[in-house]
C-alpha cells in the first residue's frame, strides 16, 4: 500500500437526489473528524474508533437543529479513499439533505468534484485505475452480465492479467539486458530461442485477452439492435411486444414511425438497445424521408440487424436485393431475417407464392405471441455469435483498455521482428519498455492528468 496522501476535506451527497428513507453525505480528507465535530452534537468524533456509528444532531452555528443523523467514522487508512472519512446518514428529503451538506460545507469543507472520492482512493493506492473504472461501470451497469463483468474487474482480475504480462516483459528485458552487458564481446543472445518463445507466447496471450473485447463491449454497452423493413412490416409492434409496453405508436397506416425510437430491453442478463426505425421506402414526404435517412444511419452503427418481412405480402422488387445485401454483410453485422404476421400467413388465402420462398431465421406473430420466446433466444445467440462467451472468463469491456493492449501487442511484435532481424538488444529494449508503458497505463501505474480527468469526470458526484 502506498503512503496515504491526506488532502483538503471534501463533501458530497453520496445518494441520489430525491425523497427516500435516508440519504448519505460523505466527508473525506484531512481533519474530516474535526470538521464534522464542529457541527455535530453528540459523541466527540475525533475520539471515536474506526468503523463505529454515532447518533447525534447536525446543528447550524446559531444552534438551529438541521437533522438527527447517524455518523459513521472510518479512520485512515481503513476507508474507501484511504483518508479519514465520515458518512453522515440523515433523513432522505431533498431539502434536509441539502441543508446537512451545506452545514458541513460551512466548516471550511469543499464540495467534491465528480468521482473525486474514487480518484483519491486510486491516488492512495486503494484501487488500480482499471478497478476505479469498474466502480463507474458497476454504477452504470444496466444488465446483470454488465454487473458481473464490472465486478470481475473490480476484483482485480483484469489487473492480474496485466501484471502477469508486465512480469513477462520484465523477464524478457532482463534477458536482453544480459546480452547488452556482453555487447563489447560480440556475444550472441545465448538464449535467443527462449526469448523468442517468451515474446511469442506473450503475443498470443495478449491477443486472447483482446479477443474478448467484442463481447465485452456488447455486455457493457448493450447490443444495438435495429429493426428495419418495409412500412407496416410490424417493427413497432415487435418492439412493444419485447419491452412489454406501448412505447412506439402502432397503426395500420404505412409510414407511422417517422423518427428512430430507442428502448432498453434486457434478456437473459444481456442488455439490448432496441431501435425501431421508419419503414424503408422511397417517399416524397420530407419528414418520412428524413426518418428513412435516420434508419439507414442506425443500421450502419448496429450490432444486430433484424429485418422484418410481412409474410402476408409478396416481396417488392428491391426487397430481395436488400435482404441479400444484408446477408452478404452478415459476418460484419449479424443479421436476422424474420417473417412477421404469421397468423395472417397461415390463412389459406394468403399462401405465399412459390417464388417467394426464402430462408427465414424465424417466423413470428407479435399479435398472437407466436415464436416470440424463440426470437429472443435467436437474437441473443446471433448477437454473441462467434464470440467466446463464458461468464467465468475475464472480459475486456473498455476501449481504453483495448487500445492499451493493442499498443502493447504491437510493441511486443516489433521486438519479435527486431529479434528475427538479428538487431541488437538496445533496439529490443526500446520496444519492450514501450510495451511495459502501454500496459502500465491500463492499471494506472503510469498515468497523467488528462487520462485521470477523462476517467473520473464520468463518475457521479459523491462517488
Ligand atoms: N395480424 C397481424 N398484424 C400485425 C402483426 N404485427 C403488426 N401487425 C399490424 O400491422 C400494422 C403495422 O404495424 P406496425 O408495428 O405499426 O408496423 P411498422 O413496421 O412499425 O410500420 P411503420 O412504422 O409504418 O414503418 C398494424 O396494424 C399492426 O397491428 C401481427 O403479428 N399479426
Ligand atoms: Mg413503426
Provide the fold topology.
Elements: E1 10-13, E2 20-28, H1 32-37, E3 40-42, E4 52-59, E5 65-74, E6 85-92, H2 94-105, E7 110-111, H3 116-123, H4 129-140, H5 144-154, H6 157-181, H7 192-211, H8 213-221, E8 223-229, H9 235-243, E9 261-267, E10 270-276, H10 286-300, E11 304-310, H11 319-328, E12 335-340, H12 342-345, E13 362-363, H13 372-383, H14 399-420, H15 425-443, H16 449-456
Parallel strand pairs: 1-7, 8-10, 8-11, 11-12, 12-13
Antiparallel strand pairs: 1-2, 2-6, 3-4, 4-5, 5-6, 9-10
The chain binds guanosine-5'-triphosphate and magnesium ion.
Q: In words, what does this structure look like?
A:
With 463 residues, this protein is of the alpha/beta class. The chain folds into three domains: 118 residues, Probable tRNA modification gtpase trme, domain 1 (Gyrase A, domain 2, 2-Layer Sandwich), CATH 3.30.1360.120; 127 residues, tRNA modification GTPase MnmE domain 2 (Four Helix Bundle (Hemerythrin (Met), subunit A)), CATH 1.20.120; 161 residues, P-loop containing nucleotide triphosphate hydrolases (Rossmann fold), CATH 3.40.50. Helix content is 44%, strand content 17%. It has a seven-stranded mixed sheet with strand order 3-4-5-6-2-1-7. A six-stranded mixed sheet has the order 9-10-8-11-12-13, sandwiched between helices. Strand 1 and strand 2 form a beta hairpin. The radius of gyration is 29 Å and the shape is flat. The two termini are 21 Å apart. Magnesium ion binds next to helix 9.
Amino acid at each position: 500500500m502506498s503512503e496515504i496522501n491526506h488532502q483538503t476535506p471534501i463533501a458530497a451527497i453520496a445518494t441520489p437526489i430525491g425523497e427516500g428513507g435516508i440519504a448519505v453525505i460523505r466527508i473525506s480528507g484531512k481533519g474530516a473528524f474535526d470538521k464534522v465535530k464542529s457541527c455535530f452534537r453528540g459523541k466527540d468524533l475525533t475520539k471515536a474508533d474506526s468503523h463505529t456509528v454515532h447518533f447525534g444532531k447536525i446543528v447550524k452555528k446559531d444552534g438551529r437543529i438541521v437533522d438527527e443523523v447517524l455518523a459513521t467514522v472510518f479512520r485512515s487508512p481503513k476507508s474507501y479513499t484511504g483518508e479519514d472519512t465520515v458518512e453522515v446518514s440523515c433523513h432522505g428529503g431533498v431539502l434536509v439533505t441539502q441543508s446537512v451538506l451545506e452545514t458541513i460545507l460551512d466548516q471550511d469543507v469543499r464540495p467534491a468534484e465528480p468521482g473525486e472520492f474514487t480518484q483519491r482512493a486510486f491516488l492512495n493506492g486503494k484501487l488500480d485505475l482499471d478497478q476505479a473504472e469498474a466502480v463507474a461501470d458497476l454504477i452504470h451497469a444496466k444488465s446483470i452480465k454488465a454487473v458481473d463483468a464490472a465486478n470481475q474487474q473490480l476484483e482485480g482480475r483484469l489487473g492480474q492479467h496485466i501484471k502477469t504480462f508486465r512480469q513477462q516483459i520484465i523477464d524478457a528485458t532482463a534477458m536482453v539486458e544480459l546480452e547488452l552487458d556482453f555487447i563489447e564481446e560480440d556475444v550472441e543472445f545465448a538464449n535467443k530461442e527462449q526469448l523468442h518463445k517468451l515474446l511469442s507466447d506473450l503475443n498470443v496471450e495478449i491477443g486472447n485477452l483482446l479477443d474478448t473485447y467484442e463481447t465485452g463491449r456488447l455486455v457493457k454497452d448493450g447490443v444495438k439492435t435495429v429493426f428495419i423493413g418495409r412500412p407496416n412490416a410490424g417493427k413497432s409492434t415487435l418492439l412493444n411486444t419485447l419491452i412489454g409496453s406501448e412505447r412506439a405508436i402502432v397503426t395500420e397506416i404505412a409510414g407511422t414511425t417517422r423518427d428512430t425510437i430507442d428502448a432498453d430491453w434486457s434478456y437473459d442478463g444481456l442488455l439490448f438497445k432496441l431501435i425501431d426505425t421508419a419503414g424503408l421506402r422511397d417517399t416524397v414526404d420530407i419528414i418520412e424521408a428524413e426518418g428513412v435517412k435516420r434508419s439507414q444511419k442506425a443500421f450502419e452503427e448496429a450490432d444486430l440487424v433484424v429485418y422484418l418481412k410481412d409474410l402476408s405480402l409478396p416481396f417488392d422488387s428491391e426487397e430481395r436485393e436488400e435482404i441479400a445485401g444484408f446477408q452478404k454483410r452478415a459476418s460484419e453485422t449479424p443479421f436476422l431475417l424474420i417473417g412477421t404476421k404469421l397468423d395472417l400467413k397461415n390463412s389459406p388465402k394468403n399462401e405465399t407464392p412459390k417464388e417467394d420462398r426464402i430462408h427465414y431465421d424465424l417466423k413470428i406473430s407479435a399479435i398472437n405471441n407466436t415464436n416470440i420466446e424463440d426470437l429472443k433466444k435467436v437474437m441473443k445467440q446471433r448477437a454473441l455469435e462467434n464470440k467466446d462467451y463464458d461468464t467465468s472468463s475475464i472480459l475486456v469491456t473498455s476501449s481504453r483498455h483495448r487500445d492499451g493492449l493493442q499498443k502493447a501487442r504491437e510493441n511486443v511484435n516489433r521486438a519479435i521482428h527486431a529479434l528475427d532481424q538479428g538487431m541488437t538488444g538496445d533496439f529490443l529494449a526500446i520496444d519492450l519498455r514501450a510495451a511495459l508503458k502501454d500496459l502500465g497505463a491500463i492499471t494506472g501505474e503510469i498515468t497523467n492528468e488528462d487520462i485521470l480527468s477523462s476517467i473520473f469526470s464520468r463518475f457521479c458526484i459523491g462517488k
